[in-house]
């Protein structure tokens, strides 16, 4: 049983890293978020490939991509991001 869970976690980490790298190359691929809180302006989201319920939230600048959080889509996303 533990090997199966480790395998799933390894697959998740590889998929997340690949998605992070993709965002670094093409930061505009993520969907813009429309939150009520003005402090959350400019945040975008992208699904982790193969894990459609897990979302990467990030901001872009002229120099880089800042990964803010990875959150399961069933959570209260705006409340979590406001707390950060």
Keywords summarizing the entry:
alpha+beta, four-stranded antiparallel β-sheet, 84 residues
| Biggest sheet layout | 4 strands, antiparallel
DSSP helix count? 2
* Strand neighbour order, sheet with most strands: 1-2-3-4
> How would you spell out the order of helices and strands?
HEEEEH
Mean pLDDT, rounded to whole units? Answer: 91
Indicate the radius of gyration in whole angstroms.
14 Å
Oligomer: single chain
Low-pLDDT runs of 5+ residues are: none
Q: Bin the strand percentage.
A: 25-35%
Q: What percentage of residues falls in helices of 4 or more residues?
A: 25-40%
User: How many strands?
Assistant: 4
Outline the structure in words.
The protein is of the alpha+beta class and 84 residues long. Helix content is 37%, strand content 30%. It contains two helices and four strands. The chain has helices at residues 2-25, 77-83; strands at 31-32, 44-48, 51-60, 65-72. A four-stranded antiparallel beta sheet has the order 1-2-3-4, covered by helices on one side. A hairpin with a 4-residue loop joins strand 3 (51-60) and strand 4. The longest helix is centred in the first third of the chain and has 24 residues, at 2-25. It is globular and about 40 Å long.
Question: What order do the helices and strands come in, and which of them pair?
Answer:
Layout: H1 2-25, E1 31-32, E2 44-48, E3 51-60, E4 65-72, H2 77-83
Antiparallel strand pairs: 1-2, 2-3, 3-4
Short description:
The chain is of the alpha+beta class and 84 residues long.
């Amino acid at each position: 049983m533990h090997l199966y869970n480790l395998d799933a976690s390894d697959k998740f980490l590889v998929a997340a890293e690949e998605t992070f790298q993709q965002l670094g190359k093409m930061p505009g691929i993520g969907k813009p978020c429309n939150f009520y809180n003005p402090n959350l302006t400019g945040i975008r989201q992208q699904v982790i490939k193969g894990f459609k319920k897990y979302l990467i939230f990030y901001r872009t600048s002229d120099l880089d991509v800042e990964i803010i959080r990875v959150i399961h889509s069933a959570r209260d996303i705006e409340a979590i991001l406001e707390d950060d």
